[in-house]
Amino acid sequence: MKKLNVGVIGLGARGYSMLPLLCGMENINIVSVCDMYHDRTEAGAALVSGSYGRPVAAYDDWHELIASKPDAVLVMSGWESHVEISIEAMRSGIPVGCEVGGAYTVDDCFRLVSAQRETGVPFMLLENCCYGRYEMMVMNMVSLGLFGEIVSCEGGYRHDLRTEILYGEKNRHYRLNNYLSRNCENYPTHDLGPIAQVLGINRGNSFVSLTSFASKSAGLNDYARLHSTVPEKLRDAAFAQGDVVKTVIRCSGGQLVTLTLDTTLPRPYSRGFTVQGTRGMYCEDGNYIYLDRDHDETMHFDWPKRWNNAEGYLKEYDHPVWRKFLEDGVRGGHGGMDYLVYNEFAVCLLEGRPFPITVEDAACWMAVTPLSEISIKEGRTVPFPVFR
Amino acid sequence: MKKLNVGVIGLGARGYSMLPLLCGMENINIVSVCDMYHDRTEAGAALVSGSYGRPVAAYDDWHELIASKPDAVLVMSGWESHVEISIEAMRSGIPVGCEVGGAYTVDDCFRLVSAQRETGVPFMLLENCCYGRYEMMVMNMVSLGLFGEIVSCEGGYRHDLRTEILYGEKNRHYRLNNYLSRNCENYPTHDLGPIAQVLGINRGNSFVSLTSFASKSAGLNDYARLHSTVPEKLRDAAFAQGDVVKTVIRCSGGQLVTLTLDTTLPRPYSRGFTVQGTRGMYCEDGNYIYLDRDHDETMHFDWPKRWNNAEGYLKEYDHPVWRKFLEDGVRGGHGGMDYLVYNEFAVCLLEGRPFPITVEDAACWMAVTPLSEISIKEGRTVPFPVFR
Questions:
Q1: B235 vs A: CB within 8 A
Q2: Which of A54, A129, B87, B386 is 20 to 30 A from B19, alpha carbon to alpha carbon?
Q3: Total structural domains in chain B?
Q4: Taking Cα atoms as reference points, which of A361, A155, A362 lies closest to residue A258?
Q5: Taking 70 as the threshold, does the pLDDT of residue A312 lie above it?
C-alpha cells in the first residue's frame, strides 16, 4: 500500500502521545520529527525509530523540517505557532494537517485562507471530534431528517484542566500564558466542529454574529492556594481568563449555537453536544435521543428510561464511516476519533480527494477565539467575518 | 389550629388542579373562588364545597372577591392579570400569594414593588421550584461552602408545551397569544428563583445586565401541520416566539447566569439547574454532584458512576425544611414543592413573619421577560433595573 511520508512538528503532550498510533498506521510513514525543545525532539525520534527499526530525521527547527520536503506535515505544536507553520508549509508546497486550537487574531484566519487559496496546497484542520461515534451518528440522523428542521445546537469544552494549567515549576505549556493574559473562548473547535457540520456552515448556512460573556476568574487561584504542587508565584497570580465563558452565535439559517468553555472548575468532562430540531434531539450529557417518532409526552418526566438510550440507535443509524471502522477493528486513542481523522487526512492526499474540512471551515471555527476576546473586552456583539 | 381564610382567583389548569391540595391543608381555609369563565367558577366552587361539606363563595369578577375581604388571596390567573390583581388586593389591604409567570412590562414590576412598599401589605411570589428537594439541598450545600465560591449558574424551562399551546378550537390559554405575539424568555422564574437564592441576589449581590438571543420559530408550525387536532388556522400562523431563547445575566458579584427557554420542540422535561463553584458543582441533568473533596481526576470521564449520585448526598445535606417535611409525610403535587410553598405563605402570614421571597425578588425575576423582549428586538444588552 502506498504510504504518505509525513513530518511531525510538535512533540508535546499531543504530538508525542500520537506517535505510536501514527507509527502503526498502514498509510502513514513518519520521515521526520521536530520540536523546539531538543529533549522532546530526541524522545520523539527515539520512539519513531524504535517503532520502525530504522533512523528518522530529527530537527529542533521546524523551518528545516519543511525544507526537507516531506509529502505532508502534521502540525501538532502549541496553539500559537499553528498558523505560522501551516502558512510556511503551504508556501513551500507541502500539504498540511493541523491540530486544533483557537486562533490568536482574526487576521491570522484570513492569512491562513489566503495562503491556501493562493498556493492551492491542501490544508485540513485535524478536528478529531468530527469523527466521534455519536457526533457522526447524529450527523447521519440529521441528514436523514430524523430530527426535522434543526433549530438550536449546543456544545462545550468542559474539562477540568487546573492541574495541567498550573503544573510545576518547569511549565512549558502554552495554556498557562493564555490563562494569564487572555479572556476568551480559547478552545472552540471540539464542540463547534461537529455543530458546524450539522448546520451546514459554509455549505448554504453561515455564522452571522457572535456574543461572548465571561464569569469572574476564581477557580485557578483557589486551586493554587490549596495545592502545594503549584508554584508559589501562581497562588495569587491575576488570571485574565474567566472560569466560564458563554458564547452565542447566530446563523443565517436562524439557528442558535451556544458554546461553553469551562476548564478551571472541578467537574466531569463533557463536550455537551446537543442538537435540537422540530422532530427530535440528541444530548451528549446522558447520551440520549428523544424523537417524536419514538416517544410521547408521558415520557417527558421519565429521566431514567432515557439514560444512555442513544446506544439503542447505533444499530440502525451508526455512520457508515464507523460501521466500516468497527468491522476493521477500533484502533487509536479517544475512542477511535484520532485514527479516523489522521486516516482521512492520509487517504484524501493519497487519493487526491478534497478534505471534508476546508480551510474556510478551519478559519470560521478558529476565529471564535479572537472574536470572543473582542466581544468580552468591548461588551458587544461582533459580526462574523466572511472567509472567502 | 388557626387557619388562613383565603380567596382563590383563577381556576384554570393551575388554579383548579391545586384546589384538592389547598382543601387538605390544615392552615388554609378557602372561603371564596373566582374565575372570569363562569363554568370554571362553578366547577371550582363545587370541588371546594364538596371537599369541605359546606358552601363556598363564588365570583366571576375578581374585584368582588377582593371586596369580600378574605385574609389573603391566592392569584392563580393567567400571566397577564397577575400584576393588576395583586396591586388591587394590596391597595385593599389583602395580602397576596401570586403564582409565577413573567411580567409584560418593566413598569409593571415597578408598580408591583411600589404598591407593596406604599401599603406595607405582604406579597409573596409562589415560586414552588424554590422548594424543590434538590434545589434546597444545593442551597444548603452552598451555604455550607461545599461548592466553594460560586461562579456560574444555569437553568432552563425546557418543557415540550406544543400540545398545550396549540390545544383545540376553544383554546383559552394565555400561552397561545404570547407565542403568537411575543419573542422573549417568557417563563423565567422556575429556573431563576432558586439560582437567585443561591447567588444572594438582593442580599449583597445583584443582576447587572441581561442579553437574550432567540432562534427561529419552527417547532409549532411543524407540529401544527402534522397534527389534525390543531385548528386549521394555526397551521401556517406566524408565531413570534423563537423555539429556543438563551439569556445571559451578569451579576455584580462576577457570576454568570445562563437561562434557556425551550418549550416548542420535542424533548424531555428539564429545568437544567446547574451550580458551579471553585470546589464543586451540582447538575440536575443526570442529578449529579462533583466535589473536589470526594472526587479526583480519574473520575472525569466516568459518567455512569456519576449518574444520580446526588441522591447519596441527601442523607447528610437534605435541607432542614425537607427533613421536617419528610418526617411529616410528603403531601401535594410536584414532589411536595406545591405544598411547601403554600405552607410557607400561610405560616408566614399566620405567625407575622416576613416572606422569604420579597416583592423585590419577584420584580427581578419577572422583569427578565420584558427585558429579554427588548434585548431580542433591539439586539443589545440591557441594564437590569434596580427595584428599590
A1: no
A2: B87
A3: 2
A4: A155
A5: yes
Decide if the complex's ipTM is over 0.90. Answer: yes
Rounded to whole angstroms, the Cα distance separating B135 from B321 reads 12
Same-domain pairing of B47 and B109: yes
Q: Which residues of B touch A288 (CB under 8 A)?
A: 268
List the end-to-end C-alpha distance of chain A, in Å, as a whole number. Answer: 37
Grid coordinates belonging to B367: 422583569
**Considering CB atoms only, which of A151, A250, A265 is closest to B219?**
A151
Name residue A282's amino acid.
Y
Q: Which domain holds residue B207?
A: 130-319+366-383
Q: Is the pLDDT of residue B171 over 70?
A: no
Residue B109 has pLDDT above 70, yes or no: yes
Q: Which of B213, B255, B380 sits opposite A248 (nearest CB)?
A: B213
Classified as helix, coil or strand, B207 is strand
Among B265, B282, B305, most A C-beta atoms within 10 A, so best to mutate, is: B265
> Is residue A258 situated within a structural domain?
yes
Phi and psi torsions of A307, nearest 5°: -50, 120
Asked if residue B276 is part of any domain, the answer here is yes
A164 and A313 share one domain: yes
Question: Quick one: which of B128, B123, B110 has its CA closest to B189?
Answer: B128
Q: What backbone torsions phi and psi does residue B3 show, to the nearest 5 degrees?
A: -115, 150
B99 to chain A, any CB pair closer than 8 A? The answer is: no
Distances B71 to A80, B77, B90, B214, B247 between C-alpha atoms, Å:
69, 19, 12, 42, 38
pTM to 2 decimal places? 0.96
The answer to whether the Cβ–Cβ distance between B213 and A256 falls below 8 Å is yes
Strand order in the sheet with A244-251: A288-291, A280-283, A274-277, A150-158, A256-262, A244-251, A207-214, A382-383
Q: Which residues of A touch B283 (CB under 8 A)?
A: 285
Chain B interface includes A254 (CB < 8 A): yes
The residue of chain A nearest to residue B276, with distances taken between CA atoms, is A265
Structural contact between residues B289 and B310, judged by C-beta atoms closer than 8 angstroms: yes
Check whether residue A276 and residue A291 sit in a common domain.
Answer: yes
* C-alpha to C-alpha distances, A260 to A189, A270, A273, A288, B372, nearest whole angstrom: 11, 10, 11, 20, 21
Q: Do A213 and B256 touch (CB under 8 A)?
A: yes
Q: Which three cell numbers stand for residue A361?
A: 471551515
Q: How many residues does chain A have?
A: 388
